[in-house]
From TrEMBL:
GO cellular component: cell outer membrane; efflux pump complex
Keywords: Cell outer membrane, Membrane, Transmembrane, Transmembrane beta strand, Transport
Cellular localisation: Cell outer membrane
Organism this protein belongs to: Flavobacterium sediminis
Signal peptide: none
Name of the protein described by the UniProt record: Transporter
Amino acid sequence: MVDTMENILKSIAVLFLLCIALETKAQVNFSSLEEVLRYADEHEISIRSAGLQEKIYTSESRKSKMALLPSVNAQAGYNDNITLQPTLVPSDFLNPSASSGTYQEFTFGRKYVYTTGFTANWDILDFQKWFAVKTAKSQQEKGSIQRMYTRYSVYNLLANTYYSILLSEKSLEIQSQNYLIMQRIYKNAENKYKAGIISQEALNRAHIQLLQVKNNKEAVSHSLQELYNDLQSQLGIEDALNMTEELTYFGQDNDIEGSFTEHPEVVLQQAELKITSSKLQEARAAQFPSLSIGYQYNYSWATDSFMEFQNANELPQQILGLKLTVPILNGSTVHEQIRQMKISQEQQKITLEAQKLKSGKEDENLILAFNSSKEELENREEIVSLQSTNDRHTDNQYESGIISLEERLDRFQDLLNVQNDYLQSFGNYCLNYYKLYIRNLNY
């Protein structure tokens, strides 16, 4: 009986440890934004898709270079001349004494013909293929830049969600503390109402404020869960997420005044312009002459017996040729294509210049917004600290019966308003901070 109980207890212990292990395994922990971004580099679908597209462009570039090499093909064939067609030959061709205008039928050739050989062709001079290589190379570079731009966009999205989670957790902590304080105030008000010290109206006001604080707390809690779901969706994670980083003021001592690397959107537009220019050259090359060389070698065996090569006729053949193609009149399609590519090139130049100006001003505004939000947050932190101190003094006065319930509720509402302003300032600061951080990353 004792052994049986020991076995049961061991089984329960093993099952308990297994459940803990499974629970631990089913949770993904992140301690910083950098960890989130590293995870995204390996798992986020948009970044992975951009990486695969980059490989496709690399393959296309290799393919265009291969087109410059000679092409060599080998072939082998077999013909069974089931019926050899007779040929009419003038009779006087073989017999001068034969009557003019008469013909004799002769059959030429042999029933079975076996052929083997190879052909080689090389476009020695083909400007379109040369510029096609340049275009493919530009596409390959664009693939790398597109992946960089995708990372930049995804990083901004993830950082926004990440810091929204941290800010919501901080807000939930504050709201939970406020709810505890408000519960204590309402409990004290109930006791005073029962003792006949305060009116029903005053008690109702305390109850209303308690419900408002509770609603705020629950709203933040629900919003936090939605944010976690958003981050799971963005990262492609089914397991639960856990953020171990605590949101604090990042503490830059000086205003940020620095130059950025070129904006990813500008780099992407530069790549588009390079591709368009290369395509324009490729279109112009259609007007240039091309020169190709070809060589063909065939060897045939002709026999009247199937697979009998002893008495076969051997018929070798070699051909060497050069081909020069000079476009003279191909309609207006080439000229219209060149005209379209020139217009596209001009569009890309305009877009690039506009993007440079826009990105430069956005960078200037980002620095201004960050420094402004940093200064505002520092002031809000001091304000909320002072207001919290005042609220503790007010609470002591209320507990001592020095001030009324109405005044206590008014001062507590002042604290809630200051906290809301503080959280709003913290949110603006985090927004500008992560934008600045991601903008300075080396992609």
